[in-house]
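Pilot study result, target chain (377 residues):
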Amino acid sequence: MADNGISSTERLWAAIRLEKTDRVPIVPTLLPEPAAHLAGISPAKVAADNAVALDAILQAFDDYGGWDSIYPGSYTPVQLQASNVNPLKVRIPGRDLPADYMWQLAEEEILESQDYDTICEMGIDRFYYEHFLGRISDLSTEDVNREIGALFTTFERFLAECQTRNVPPFFMGNGMHPFFTLSLMRSMVAFTKDLYYQPEPVERAIKRMTADIIVSQIPLARQSGLGTWLFTEERASAYFYPPSIFERFWWPYTKQVVDAFWSEGIVTIFHLDQCWDKNIPYFRQLPKGSFILELDSKTDIFAAKEILRGHACFHGDVPAALLSIGQPQEVRDYCRLLIERVGEDGGFILGSGCSVPCNVEPENFRAMIETGKQTVG
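Predicted structure:
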C-alpha cells in the first residue's frame, strides 16, 4: 500500500523516528471481535477458530480501503490462555456465554503468596505450565500443543497476507509487564496487599520475570526484522498506585526492558490503558525514539505530547465511545484534531484508543480511516 510514492513501511517508520511524511500512518487496533462485527459474523465464530478471526480482520482491511500496518490479532481466547498471555479463567461465547457475547476474563485470587518464590526459582513459563495453567483451565498438554500450533500456522498466513497487501505487521513478539501479570494472577486486591505487606517476594518475582522477558522476546523480535515489539500494562499508573509503588515495582524494570530491546535496535510499543497523566514525565528518562506510547483515550494525549515532544512517538487515541456511539463527523473532527496537534511535527500514528470497540459503527470506522488518509498534518 502506497500513497504519493511512499510505502506504508516508510510512512510508519518515519513516525516512529519522529519525522514527518506525506500524512500520518494509520494503524487501528482491530482485534477479532470488532472485525467480526464489521464482517457480520458472531463473536462465537472468531472465539472458536483463529483462522476465521484472521479472515475477518483481512476482510475489514479490504472492505475499508486498507491502512498502513495491521495489528496482529489472529488468536482465540483459549489460545491466549494456552500461550501464557492471559493467565486467567475465560468464558467463551457459544460455550459458556451466548454466541453474540464477547469472551470474558474471570479474575480470581488464584496465585498464592508462596508462588512468588517458586516463580523466582523456576521462571514464569515453567511455573505457568507446571503449576498454574491447571488452576485456571482443563487444558491438557496435547490441547496446549494443538492450540499453539494453530497460532503459528495462522500467523504464517497472516505474514503472507500482509506481504500480499504491501503492509507490515505492527509488531512481532509481545509480553505483559510482570507487574500486570502478577496482578492478574493474584487478583488486584490481594496483589496490592502484597505490595505493601510482603513486598520483597513480589519484587524478586518481578526481577526474575523481567529477565525472562528479555531472554525470550528479544530473539523473536530480532528474527522478525520488524523492529518493534508490544509491552502491555493496565494497572501500574497513578490512577491506581502512588509514586512510591510505581518507582519501586514498575519503573526500574521497565527501563531495563526498554534499554535491552533498544540495544538491539528494537522499539518498544507500550500499550498503556487507564490514565497515565502523572506518570508521563518519567518516560523522558528512556532513550529518545526507543518507544511508542499507545494510549486508550483515558490519558490526556495532548498534554503527554507536550511533555514528550520530539522524544517519543504516540499511537492512538480515538475513543471507543466515539467509534461506537458517536457520529461520523465527530470522529472526523477528533481525528483532525489529533493529526494537527499530536502529529504536527511528526511522531504520531493514528489509531483507536485501545481496541476498536466490538460494537463499532461501520461508518465511524470508515471515517477514522478515510480522515487519516485525507488530512495532512
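One observation from the pilot: The beta strands are 2-3, 6-7, 89-91, 104-106, 174-176, 228-233, 267-272, 291-295, 313-318, 348-352. A full batch analysis is planned for the follow-on phase.
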